[in-house]
Amino acid sequence: MKFRYTRYTGDPLDEIDLQDLVSKLSDLLLSSGFSSPWSDPSEGDDDRTMQALHDAILEALFSGGVLSDDALQRLLGDPADADQEGARQQVEDLIQQIIERMTEQGFITQSPDLEREQQARAGQGGGMGDDAGPVTFEVTDKALDFLGYRALRDLLGSMGRSSTGRHDTRHLSTGVEAISAPKPYEFGDTLNIDPSSTILNAVQRQHRDGAAGASGHGGIDVDYSDLMVAQSEYQSSCATVIMLDCSHSMILYGEDRFTPAKRVALALSHLIRTQYPGDSLHAVLFHDSAEEVPIKQLGRVKVGPYYTNTREGLRLARRVLERQKKDMRQIVMITDGKPSALTRPDGQIYKNPFGLDPHIVAETFAEVNACNKAGIMINTFMLARDPDLVAFVRRVASICRGKAYFTTPYTLGQYVMMDYMDRKTKTIH
Questions:
Q1: pLDDT (tens digit, 9 = 90+) per residue, 114-127?
Q2: What is the DSSP string of 352-390?
Q3: Using CA of residue 27, residue 28, residue 31, residue 33, what is the dihedral sign?
Q4: Domains defined along the chain, listed by start
Q5: How far, in Å, CA of 419 to CA of 96, rounded?
Q6: H helix or E strand, kind and range, residue 142
Q7: Model-level pTM greater than 0.70?
């Protein structure tokens, strides 16, 4: 029996780094409604359809560098080949295998209607059939945690920091990790004896007193006054509320500002869990009103409703922080719009989207003063450059001794992370 041998070209699926692909799909997986910015946020979820996932994977394969040029050439074949239908089917099969692997590895879960969608696909020879309906998928907690890790890694890499430690302060304490000159032991210090300096003190004292060898055994007598303890930097703990503006303007005007904000929040959460375990992070969304959401749910949140109730967001953030017993308490506010709503004592919401309403601004400043009296610092990251907004944000910073950053969705992450990691060297006294 004769055999014909052909060169093994490999399976394109084996060349795909699934984690790299998931990272490139982060805009879709963290979508905030930008695909249909003018629709009602309460209606449907076009960003979570299998068709949207299919299209995003297709773009990543051909434009995102997920597959090498050689792999793409093997997948598509010779353009002069008449069997282009076969090449298209191979692409569709590869995308389906990727979706199945993403599901198997726990990055997404698929809706119960998947079987109906797959049957429609088989009947149409590829693509997402209209008869299949809006089959959807959900992003898992594993995927959100992974995206937070990748966002943190990318942000720290862009800042030239390969590793991070805990928050440093100008105070020194007697701890385990010695990073400063030793000091004489005082009652109450951690008994972290510095051997060399302690023995040196004892030798010098005996030499001064002419008592060397007085013990009769040639040893060194260590007195209480000789004791030296190693010093380490005092590491403070911090409670942070990241306050995200999710009013409708965050996805309007041709720019998605909310998805980068969510990505920063997930990266900050991952940083705190892995590097600063004594810290805490909470998330508050503000729009017509305000609400606290669990950090693990933040990646699934979309924008809406429409107005910007900054005062209510600050009030809720202050209440959250007042329950935290930490050395430092701060609000990280990310916004792109002026305060345009206010919750009245009777629960009704007063709205005025035209200009800076003096009543809304005054009540907002009153809440900023309340935060300042509670010892809470507010750092504002503004994603707009309107002169009136600039003046408003600078006034907020001056009242609470915080900082105002005027940034863009592309540089937001670097500013937030640098501010968080540098904050504590300047506020503990």
A1: 555 555 555 554 44
A2: --SS--HHHHHHHHHHHHHHHHTTEEEEEEES---HHHH
A3: positive
A4: 12-139 (no CATH), 169-234 (no CATH), 237-425 (3.40.50.410)
A5: 42
A6: helix 141-158
A7: yes
